[in-house]
Amino acid sequence: xxxxxxxxxxxxxxxxxxxxxxxxxxxxxxxxxxxxxxxxxxxxxxxxxxxxxxxxxxxxxxxxxxxxxxxxxxxxxxxxxxxxxxxxxxxxxxxxxxxxxxxxxxxxxxxxxxxxxxxxxxxxxxxxxxxxxxxxxxxxxxxxxxxxxxxxxxxxxxxxxxxxxxxxxxxxxxxxxxxxxxxxxxxxxxxxxxxxxxxxxxxxxxxxxxxxxxxxxxxxxxxxxxxxxxxxxxxxxxxxxxxxxxxxxxxxxxxxxxxxxxxxxxxxxxxxxxxxxxxxxxxxxxxxxxxxxxxxxxxxxxxxxxxxxxxxxxxxxxxxxxxxxxxxxxxxxxxxxxxxxxxxxxxxxxxxxxxxxxxxxxxxxxxxxxxxxxxxxxxxxxxxxxxxxxxxxxxxxxxxxxxxxxxxxxxxxxxxxxxxxxxxxxxxxxxxxxxxxxxxxxxxxxxxxxxxxxxxxxxxxxxxxxxxxxxxxxxxxxxxxxxxxxxxxxxxxxxxxxxxxxxxxxxxxxxxxxxxxxxxxxxxxxxxxxxxxxxxxxxxxxxxxxxxxx
Length: 550
Fold this sequence. Notes:
The chain has about 550 residues and is an alpha/beta fold. It is built from 28 helices and eight strands. It folds into three domains: about 5-185, no CATH class; about 205-330, Serine Threonine Protein Phosphatase 5, Tetratricopeptide repeat, CATH 1.25.40; about 345-545, no CATH class. Helix content is about 55%, strand content about 5%. The relative contact order is 0.08.
């Protein structure tokens, strides 16, 4: 049986799949120039299309002719070669004029020496470039820069088009053509969700423009720091609001990042302005802390009071409760009554020094009657992900729009669960009718290896699942699922390191391991408070190293 990658032109099929997919679903969002370019690509012979696919899939926009050497493409050429056809179609430039920086990226240090002479041996390539850049160097073609190489430069034209096409297909710019390859190799398997012609990640061209605009501003911010915020584009984006809610959430995250960068660089006033504009839940807490640090304690207290009465989520509620007493002391205000913290079961354990405190604790606590497993976030997430598979992968509008989704596109949105409330309740109903154990195990076998945002296949096996389902009471499993559904984004992490089962007694306990000098994180405290409220067995194991005795 032949394998997809046995075909040397496998990447050409992937490239054409993307182009065809976009043309079928997003034709109304393409402008006249983009349609013209896609028509030119469609009209190319196979060899030229294959070379274009190779170039598009490479990093950057400038290449050397010698770097584009593909035997399978040369075997297809008849008459004009593929590169000339791409040039004639206006898709590549065979004589790009290269500034100094581009030249240094294309050539090795030894190849630059005939042009500029040998540099000081202590200089690195970038340092050499920076030294040369102090004087003007007019852009030239590669042949003009380095005639001795008998080489030409190649420039991919319209790179923004290919970025836009990739975005329209994947719905993000994290994924690329490697996802096709990994799927072909069987490294990644994806849940086959029905995707009709109306399933699109973007509803209008403005959505795509907004996404790209935010993406490029985020890149500029990471590259240039607060200087990136001085541009007209950045100022316009700060004052802008995206019509598409999930893209607006991306803008809000950019605002938060921008405020953090400004704060780090000491621009407190500008930072506070952006925090005030940002709707991300953590922005208000950061604003309160910065106001306090800059001496505006009264303003900080007023904002904290608003947050106390209407917290954005449990994380903000927890952090504001920690800040308020300090602000009240500074202002001489009456202390706000704070509910008593839930008591947390704990015990101490002394073990021999080891590289992993979790594994050392697991080995010390385990027995034949009460085995211990180092599961961290894997077990409860897997039980939830397998039980609620049909709800998670429901083909809702805007959730899936290409074949390579690891999970729904709206997974981390605040309305993820609410949009699927009926489906989730149906899945949790399997706990009530007693069929949940069989369904979870069957789902584990049937869906083995399929990408999921909750199931880490390498960290669980069927024996562990069977033991968990035998030992964890049904009502406890429902509570764990409800904990996850409260806040998918934050509650997927923070679970206890270990789980200990008592199969003969059909019970279990979760154990968070803390080594010397370690402490509980905020998300762990929130999770333990939930456990305390619902009688879920959890304890903290404080580990100390056994002193070596001479």
